[in-house]
Amino acid sequence: MTTDVTADVSHPRGNTMHITTKRRTLLAAAALASATALVLTGCSGSSSNGTASKSITVQVQTGQEAEVAAFIKVFKKQHPGDTVKTVSVSQTAKTGSNLQVLTSSNAPDVAIVPTNTQVFSRLTQGKQLLSLSDVWKKADLQKLYGNSLANSLKTNGTPYVVSIDSTIYNIVYYNKALFKKAGIATPTDHRIASLSDLESMVTKLKGIGKQGLSIGPGDNFQSSWMIDAFLPTASSTSQLQNYLTNWESSKTKITAKYTDAPFVDSISRIQAMGKAGVFQTGYLGQTVPQSESNFVQQSAGMVLDGSYSPATFKKDGINFDYDWALLPPIDSSKKTQVSLYNGDAYAIPARAKNPTVAKQFLESVMSAEGQTTTIASGSLPATNNVPKSAFSGTAVQVQEILADEAKNGGQPGWTSVVPGGLGQQLVDPKIQELLNGNGSAQAIGQAVDSELQTVRSGNAN
């Protein structure tokens, strides 16, 4: 039996990356603020380390019931004597009022804790999550996630969460027949080499009466999405790691500012694409579904989307062959990698009643068997231990993208890692204004630097 933490319900799976863009309601913000004082002063009481009870309570985000049901099935197979009760949590609650639940005496054993929210940072600051170092070690997650993702999931070197699934985004899908008709060469190694090459593609598409790269800024995330593709190609490894983690604590030294070249150049690249007419006519007023329709209906030769898109295209009746590529790097000596969203994460609250069995549940989720189940649920595994045969039913483009990630690696997206108030919610409207001719890349960097100080102090809304 499930019970809902809040009556405010939304469904994130219609378009996977919407999960990073939902704005907090006033109710959620108020709940978050009231819970923060409780967290940071330290809640009384502690978890039980006994295993007398073989029953655990697991939170399930609305829209992810099938995925978690599959995880539970694997867990029960591996631990037949244990039982699992699920508790539903809405999209709105998980970024706000759930903080109160996770610090209460009724805390679940396994909790939804999105890593790019203030809920996560305040729980870690208040020492209200158990370390999962033993789970990571037993499941070999440092290796199975890869260093870039693994390090982005840790707080001051300690893992408090496991990322349970993955989404790949910033994929440029292109119409093969239109490219051939326009005389556009197939991008080598699935990579657009330079901005000038991208501009040339668009010019040739317009020459046959088609639009260029279709995007959907109207949903308030795709404008800033592109930062996640460009920033790794403009930063050193240490700079990128600092961008991804310097918000977590005031003790973390800031070595990469948002007014520094890597971030400003990434914003400037997006601005340059807008000025060059890379995007479709009227793009600022269009949503992602409209953008996808432009591509499926062949009014645009390219579309910016994610690993979930082939299923959407098929549902929308696509009737032509298409391929994929990645956006051009800022530093031509660097190879663009796929952008990764791994913010769907589970943690164990400090007040969990049965943390031992909860850890066994997380180990089941992160096992090869557990991760394989994410495919049937419409997601992708967060780890690289799933056999290739498990992907046989997915679109060939998705299989190729996964093979590219295995060969060339992937990068956790900046907007997918940092809190929304520092990243996407703050930056996306400003980039849209920039594309509309207002503001500057430097000014956006200054705004993010300012907000970073607020987030680090623990006083962000």
Explain the overall architecture.
The protein has 461 residues and is of the alpha/beta class. The protein has 2 domains: 12-166 and 342-386, 3-Layer(aba) Sandwich (D-Maltodextrin-Binding Protein, domain 2), CATH 3.40.190.10; 169-339 and 416-457, D-Maltodextrin-Binding Protein, domain 2 (3-Layer(aba) Sandwich), CATH 3.40.190.10. It has 21 helices and 13 strands. Helix 2 (65-78) packs across helix 16, helix 11 (222-234) packs across helix 13 and helix 13 (261-275) packs across helix 21. It is globular, with a radius of gyration of 22 Å. Residues 1-52 have low confidence and may be disordered.
Q: Which structural class do the helices and strands define?
A: alpha/beta
Query: What is the averaged pLDDT score?
Result: 88
- Provide the β-strand percentage band: 5-15%
* Full CATH superfamily name of the largest domain: Periplasmic binding protein-like II
